[in-house]
Amino acid sequence: MNFSFIFIGSTHGFIDDFLKQREVILETKPEFVLCEELEYLKLDSEDRFNELMQKRSISNMTSFEEVENLVKLCFKENIKLVGIDFKNFGFDGDLQKKIKNEEKLSQIEEEKISNIISLREKRHLDKILEYKKKTSRPIVIIIGSWHLRENSLLRKKLKSYKLILPCDKNNNPLFESNGKGDIKYVEIVSNDL
Protein backbone atom coordinates (compact mmCIF):
# COMPACT_ATOMS: atom_id res chain seq x y z
CA MET A 1 0.00 0.00 0.00
CA ASN A 2 1.34 3.43 -0.93
CA PHE A 3 1.02 6.25 1.57
CA SER A 4 1.62 9.95 1.03
CA PHE A 5 2.88 10.34 4.59
CA ILE A 6 4.65 8.01 6.98
CA PHE A 7 4.77 9.44 10.48
CA ILE A 8 7.17 8.11 13.09
CA GLY A 9 6.23 9.10 16.61
CA SER A 10 9.20 10.38 18.56
CA THR A 11 9.57 9.99 22.31
CA HIS A 12 12.16 12.79 22.42
CA GLY A 13 14.70 10.44 23.86
CA PHE A 14 13.21 8.17 26.49
CA ILE A 15 13.90 5.32 24.07
CA ASP A 16 16.35 5.17 21.16
CA ASP A 17 14.03 6.70 18.55
CA PHE A 18 16.72 6.54 15.87
CA LEU A 19 16.54 2.76 15.51
CA LYS A 20 12.97 2.93 14.16
CA GLN A 21 13.69 6.10 12.17
CA ARG A 22 16.64 4.44 10.42
CA GLU A 23 14.62 1.33 9.62
CA VAL A 24 11.73 3.29 8.08
CA ILE A 25 13.93 5.72 6.15
CA LEU A 26 16.06 2.96 4.60
CA GLU A 27 12.94 0.98 3.71
CA THR A 28 11.04 3.97 2.27
CA LYS A 29 13.88 5.86 0.55
CA PRO A 30 12.06 9.22 0.67
CA GLU A 31 13.18 12.37 -1.07
CA PHE A 32 12.32 14.35 2.07
CA VAL A 33 12.37 13.63 5.79
CA LEU A 34 10.54 16.28 7.78
CA CYS A 35 11.52 16.54 11.43
CA GLU A 36 10.09 18.50 14.33
CA GLU A 37 13.40 18.42 16.27
CA LEU A 38 15.28 20.03 13.40
CA GLU A 39 13.07 23.02 14.21
CA TYR A 40 13.50 25.63 11.43
CA LEU A 41 16.61 24.24 9.68
CA LYS A 42 16.62 23.02 6.10
CA LEU A 43 19.37 20.60 5.07
CA ASP A 44 18.79 20.36 1.35
CA SER A 45 22.36 20.62 0.06
CA GLU A 46 25.76 19.21 0.89
CA ASP A 47 26.87 22.68 2.00
CA ARG A 48 24.03 22.97 4.51
CA PHE A 49 24.71 19.50 5.93
CA ASN A 50 28.41 20.32 6.25
CA GLU A 51 27.66 23.68 7.88
CA LEU A 52 25.54 22.01 10.55
CA MET A 53 28.15 19.27 11.10
CA GLN A 54 30.76 22.00 11.68
CA LYS A 55 28.55 24.14 13.92
CA ARG A 56 27.05 21.13 15.81
CA SER A 57 24.26 23.30 17.19
CA ILE A 58 20.50 23.37 16.64
CA SER A 59 19.00 25.64 19.31
CA ASN A 60 18.52 26.19 23.02
CA MET A 61 15.79 23.52 23.06
CA THR A 62 17.37 20.85 20.84
CA SER A 63 20.95 19.65 21.19
CA PHE A 64 22.83 18.53 18.10
CA GLU A 65 23.35 15.12 19.72
CA GLU A 66 19.57 14.54 19.70
CA VAL A 67 19.50 14.61 15.88
CA GLU A 68 23.09 13.74 14.97
CA ASN A 69 22.41 10.16 13.83
CA LEU A 70 19.44 11.27 11.74
CA VAL A 71 21.46 14.07 10.13
CA LYS A 72 24.30 11.68 9.26
CA LEU A 73 21.92 9.07 7.84
CA CYS A 74 20.08 11.57 5.63
CA PHE A 75 23.37 13.03 4.40
CA LYS A 76 24.74 9.58 3.58
CA GLU A 77 21.53 8.55 1.79
CA ASN A 78 21.24 11.89 -0.03
CA ILE A 79 17.85 12.68 1.54
CA LYS A 80 16.77 16.26 2.19
CA LEU A 81 16.12 16.80 5.90
CA VAL A 82 13.79 19.67 6.75
CA GLY A 83 12.68 21.16 10.07
CA ILE A 84 8.95 21.81 10.37
CA ASP A 85 8.82 23.84 13.58
CA PHE A 86 9.85 27.23 14.94
CA LYS A 87 13.27 28.01 16.39
CA ASN A 88 13.24 26.88 20.03
CA PHE A 89 9.72 25.55 19.32
CA GLY A 90 8.47 29.15 19.56
CA PHE A 91 9.24 29.46 23.29
CA ASP A 92 10.75 32.66 24.68
CA GLY A 93 13.82 32.57 26.95
CA ASP A 94 11.85 32.30 30.21
CA LEU A 95 9.70 29.42 28.94
CA GLN A 96 12.74 27.66 27.49
CA LYS A 97 14.46 27.75 30.87
CA LYS A 98 11.39 26.54 32.78
CA ILE A 99 10.66 23.73 30.31
CA LYS A 100 14.28 22.55 30.22
CA ASN A 101 14.47 22.58 34.03
CA GLU A 102 10.99 21.02 34.35
CA GLU A 103 9.92 23.86 36.63
CA LYS A 104 6.32 24.45 37.67
CA LEU A 105 4.51 26.79 35.27
CA SER A 106 2.02 29.48 36.19
CA GLN A 107 -1.52 29.46 34.77
CA ILE A 108 -0.56 32.28 32.38
CA GLU A 109 2.51 30.33 31.20
CA GLU A 110 0.38 27.20 30.69
CA GLU A 111 -2.03 29.23 28.52
CA LYS A 112 0.88 30.73 26.60
CA ILE A 113 2.28 27.26 25.92
CA SER A 114 -1.14 26.03 24.81
CA ASN A 115 -1.35 28.89 22.28
CA ILE A 116 2.19 28.21 21.05
CA ILE A 117 1.39 24.51 20.61
CA SER A 118 -1.61 25.41 18.44
CA LEU A 119 0.62 27.61 16.27
CA ARG A 120 3.25 24.88 16.08
CA GLU A 121 0.73 22.24 14.98
CA LYS A 122 -0.55 24.56 12.26
CA ARG A 123 3.03 25.13 11.11
CA HIS A 124 3.66 21.36 11.06
CA LEU A 125 0.61 20.88 8.83
CA ASP A 126 1.54 23.79 6.53
CA LYS A 127 5.10 22.49 6.09
CA ILE A 128 3.90 18.94 5.41
CA LEU A 129 1.47 20.18 2.74
CA GLU A 130 4.19 22.42 1.24
CA TYR A 131 6.58 19.49 0.82
CA LYS A 132 3.89 17.15 -0.49
CA LYS A 133 3.70 19.43 -3.55
CA LYS A 134 7.45 18.94 -4.11
CA THR A 135 7.56 15.14 -4.42
CA SER A 136 5.62 12.18 -5.69
CA ARG A 137 7.31 9.88 -3.19
CA PRO A 138 6.10 9.24 0.36
CA ILE A 139 7.32 11.75 2.93
CA VAL A 140 8.70 10.48 6.23
CA ILE A 141 7.74 12.77 9.10
CA ILE A 142 9.38 12.49 12.52
CA ILE A 143 7.34 14.25 15.16
CA GLY A 144 6.57 13.93 18.84
CA SER A 145 4.01 11.17 19.42
CA TRP A 146 1.75 13.62 21.24
CA HIS A 147 1.19 15.50 17.95
CA LEU A 148 -0.21 12.24 16.53
CA ARG A 149 -2.85 11.75 19.22
CA GLU A 150 -6.25 10.63 17.95
CA ASN A 151 -7.89 14.06 17.53
CA SER A 152 -4.75 15.94 16.51
CA LEU A 153 -4.78 18.49 13.71
CA LEU A 154 -2.54 16.27 11.57
CA ARG A 155 -4.83 13.26 11.83
CA LYS A 156 -7.91 15.37 11.13
CA LYS A 157 -6.51 17.20 8.11
CA LEU A 158 -4.34 14.63 6.32
CA LYS A 159 -5.25 11.54 4.33
CA SER A 160 -3.27 8.59 3.06
CA TYR A 161 -0.96 8.21 6.02
CA LYS A 162 0.60 5.55 8.17
CA LEU A 163 1.51 6.27 11.79
CA ILE A 164 4.24 4.30 13.51
CA LEU A 165 3.81 4.95 17.22
CA PRO A 166 5.69 3.76 20.30
CA CYS A 167 3.14 2.02 22.52
CA ASP A 168 2.96 0.13 25.78
CA LYS A 169 2.17 -3.59 25.93
CA ASN A 170 -1.58 -2.78 25.71
CA ASN A 171 -1.10 -0.79 22.47
CA ASN A 172 -1.64 2.58 24.18
CA PRO A 173 0.48 5.30 22.54
CA LEU A 174 3.26 6.58 24.79
CA PHE A 175 3.61 10.33 25.16
CA GLU A 176 6.07 10.04 28.05
CA SER A 177 8.15 7.29 29.64
CA ASN A 178 6.14 4.54 31.26
CA GLY A 179 9.22 3.62 33.29
CA LYS A 180 8.82 -0.05 32.39
CA GLY A 181 10.73 -0.34 29.15
CA ASP A 182 7.94 -2.46 27.62
CA ILE A 183 7.71 -0.51 24.39
CA LYS A 184 6.70 -1.71 20.96
CA TYR A 185 5.72 0.06 17.76
CA VAL A 186 2.18 -0.09 16.44
CA GLU A 187 1.11 0.96 12.95
CA ILE A 188 -2.10 2.88 12.40
CA VAL A 189 -3.36 3.52 8.89
CA SER A 190 -5.73 6.37 7.99
CA ASN A 191 -9.25 5.26 7.18
CA ASP A 192 -9.41 7.39 4.06
CA LEU A 193 -6.80 6.22 1.61
Topology:
Layout (H helix, E strand, L loop, with lengths): L4 E6 L6 H12 L3 E4 L6 E2 L2 H10 L8 H13 L3 E4 L9 H8 L6 H26 L6 E6 L8 H5 L3 E7 L16 E6 L4
Parallel strand pairs: 1-5, 1-6, 2-4, 2-5
Antiparallel strand pairs: 3-4, 6-7
Short description:
This protein is 38% helix and 18% strand. With 193 residues, it is of the alpha/beta class. The protein has a seven-stranded mixed sheet, with helices on both faces.
Q: Can you characterise this structure?
A:
- By secondary structure, the protein is of the alpha/beta class.
- The chain is built from six helices and seven strands, in the order βαββααβααβαββ.
- It has helices at residues 17-28, 46-55, 64-76, 93-100, 107-132, 153-157, and strands at residues 5-10, 32-35, 42-43, 80-83, 139-144, 161-167, 184-189.
- It has a seven-stranded mixed beta sheet with strand order 3-4-2-5-1-6-7, with helices on both faces.
- The chain is globular, with a radius of gyration of 16 Å.
- The model has no long low-confidence stretch (mean pLDDT 91).
Comma- or semicolon-separated keywords:
alpha/beta; 7 strands; 6 helices; globular; 18% strand; 193 residues; single chain
Shape: globular
Structural class: alpha/beta
Number of beta-strand segments: 7
Largest sheet, described in full? 7 strands, mixed
Portion in beta strands: 15-25%
In spatial order, strands of the major sheet run 3-4-2-5-1-6-7
Rg of Cα set: 16 Å
| SSE series | EHEEHHEHHEHEE
Count of alpha/pi helices: 6
**Poorly predicted tracts of residues:** none
Distance from N terminus to C terminus (CA atoms, Å) equals 9 Å
